[in-house]
Amino acid sequence: MAQQSLQKHPHDEDAEYDSNIGIAYHLRGATKLEVKSFCRMEETAADKRVTTRLPPCCLCILREKFIIVGTYLLHKDSGNRTGSIEVYDKELNLLSSIKTYGAILDLKLNPFDDTLLATAHSTGNMILWTISVDDDNSSIDIKLLNNLQVFDPTCLITSLQFSPLLDNLVLLTTTNGDFATVDIIHGEICFIEEVEPSYFDSSTINYIEVPNADIKVINVQNDHEQIFHFKHSLECWTGEFGCLAPLKDVVFTGGDDSAIAAHDLNSGKKIWSNSKIHQAGVTAIKAARETFRGNKPTSLITGSYDDHIRSFDLRMLSETTIYPGTDVPVVNKWEDNLQGGVWRFSEAPTNDGLSNNRLMVCCMYNGAKVVNVQNDHFVTEQFIKEGHESMCYGGDWSKETVATCSFYDKSLQLWKSPN
């Protein structure tokens, strides 16, 4: 796509009116009151709510005690985007804030070690942080480990996903349609430890200069990363690792070109893609795992700007592998209109992979919903809209609490998890 279109992102102010990024154009003429009327159940009330200092874009909950929020601010005068990591306690008191020279579009805790935090930035870099929490979980400290330049600094990293099977792999997607996995542990340098330049000769660590960067930048482009052969023709919004056989060595990506694609993790080659399932950009993908639809290992759940959540199966013509090709049809497809662009999924910590297959769904201009996937059907069990008028981009939950954030509202809310 044209370079000019890469200068806008859904989180930029007035982005919903930019036809280049295909964001919230799917109200189809419905007013806000009409959108609200689509929901038949009683709305869940927020237990706590706070106005954030900067627009929140993503969040995660740490040990039932802390909410870690990534923010995104567009400076209209310069066109620069900056961000911060904001840490709140369970009463939504702001505990600390760390400024970042690039806006934060996504952040995740390592599933193997929750003291490792990764943030994805508007400047093509991923930053790794170490978290220290005292013995009674009453205080928290976040410190920089390493700043890795994975893509060109003009490229926005749109999503970040740790592998659920391999503790060394992170999957990143970008606005230019590219995506890559980064090895953060193996190799001559281990990035989950603070890199000490004195331990290495000058040829081992490739430090580079990046405009506005106020911390050291280690260039890992074409090193420590797996580049894939396929590229989305528009923004690549989301990525997901396969988890269960036969999809353990597969990664999935979704883009603004309405395409969802499967790629071989080892060779980097595309296995399968389809741009006819979704009517707009693919923004969320959830693969089966032991705690989520474990009896359907070849199934996927997807979300799209077209307001729909979908379930389908990739067995196609084989019981054990994906049938390769382009626009090869899927089977057992079901869908439901959630009346809002389906931006992100977060799996319930109490899922059992059997009767409980819940997802917290960020529905952009229609708040957030808890959806239980029963067989191939979707049952909305809870929803919250008040305080999340525009746009609900981030959410996570613990055993006791759901946390969601809304971008233009600068709203961070806590509400009770379903039983």
Automatic annotation (TrEMBL):
<keyword id="KW-0853">WD repeat</keyword>
<dbReference type="InterPro" id="IPR001680">
    <property type="entry name" value="WD40_rpt"/>
</dbReference>
<comment type="pathway">
    <text>Protein modification; peptidyl-diphthamide biosynthesis.</text>
</comment>
<comment type="similarity">
    <text>Belongs to the DPH7 family.</text>
</comment>
<dbReference type="GO" id="GO:0005737">
    <property type="term" value="C:cytoplasm"/>
</dbReference>
<protein>
    <recommendedName>
        <fullName>methylated diphthine methylhydrolase</fullName>
        <ecNumber>3.1.1.97</ecNumber>
    </recommendedName>
</protein>
<dbReference type="InterPro" id="IPR015943">
    <property type="entry name" value="WD40/YVTN_repeat-like_dom_sf"/>
</dbReference>
<dbReference type="GO" id="GO:0017183">
    <property type="term" value="P:protein histidyl modification to diphthamide"/>
</dbReference>
<dbReference type="GO" id="GO:0061685">
    <property type="term" value="F:diphthine methylesterase activity"/>
</dbReference>
<dbReference type="InterPro" id="IPR052415">
    <property type="entry name" value="Diphthine_MTase"/>
</dbReference>
<keyword id="KW-0677">Repeat</keyword>
